[in-house]
Amino acid sequence: MITIYLAEDQVMIAQALQTLLDLEADLKVLGVANDGQQALKDILELKPDIALLDIEMPHLNGLDVATQLRESVWSGKVIVLTTFARKEYFAKAIKNEVAGYLLKDSPSVDLIQTIKTVFNGQTVYESRLVKGMFTKEECPLTKRELQILSALQTSSNTQQIAQKVYLAEGTIRNYISAILSKTGTSSRLEAVLLAKENGWI
């Protein structure tokens, strides 16, 4: 069972999302808030696996909540769900290690799949936000992800890369999945070419 906390300032949308998520046999909504301050308090108390946060909320917006959660002892994952395809919002979400970022006009099946994917340790970012979003100075990848992407230039063998950077093969696969998601690419080669084009590696 994947437990979820939902923060959404529009009551009707919050109710619709809660109903949608509770229809899934393996998902359970622990609580709902309509403002960021209440959401932060409840998440730290209830400790859900996933915090599903709207950005525009009273008192604290979703990205501020994500920042404080990252600095806390809570070990769950944050997914941002928003109507705003704004570069500065997405950049701040990446900085705060948000595991998922979706637009509200995405199909409901995408939201459910994103929750399950994020729960399993991977990241999911809306491709419409990723493509063309970053410049050389705004690389979305962590140092470790860049290290693995660089290793992909000379080897596509996951086992060899794992040995080279002293990590498990499963961990390497998760990193590669995150790299593809963050860069909006569909293959390892495409990710490498994009990174070289932007001067990241």
Mean pLDDT: 88
The share of residues in extended strands comes to 5-15%
- What is the CA-based Rg, rounded? 17 Å
What percent of the residues sit in helical stretches (DSSP H or I)?
40-55%
Q: Alpha-carbon distance between the termini?
A: 40 Å
- The SSE order reads EHEHEHEHEHEHHHHH
Counting helices, strands and paired strands, the structural category is alpha/beta
Number of strands: 6
The DSSP helix count reads: 10
Give a quick account of the main beta sheet: strands, pairing sense, barrel closure.
6 strands, parallel
Q: Per the principal axes of the C-alpha atoms, what is the gross shape? A: globular
Low-pLDDT runs of 5+ residues are none
Widest sheet: strand ordering: 2-1-3-4-5-6
Supply the key terms.
alpha/beta
How would you sum up this structure in a few lines?
The chain is an alpha/beta fold and 201 residues long. The chain contains ten helices and six strands; from the N terminus they run βαβαβαβαβαβααααα.
Structure description:
- The chain is of the alpha/beta class and 201 residues long.
- It contains 10 helices and 6 strands; from the N terminus they run βαβαβαβαβαβααααα.
- The chain has a 6-stranded parallel beta sheet with strand order 2-1-3-4-5-6, sandwiched between helices.
- Helix 1 links the parallel strand 1 and strand 2 (27-33).
- Helix 7 (143-151) crosses helix 9 (169-183).
- The N and C termini lie far apart (40 Å).
- The mean pLDDT is 88.
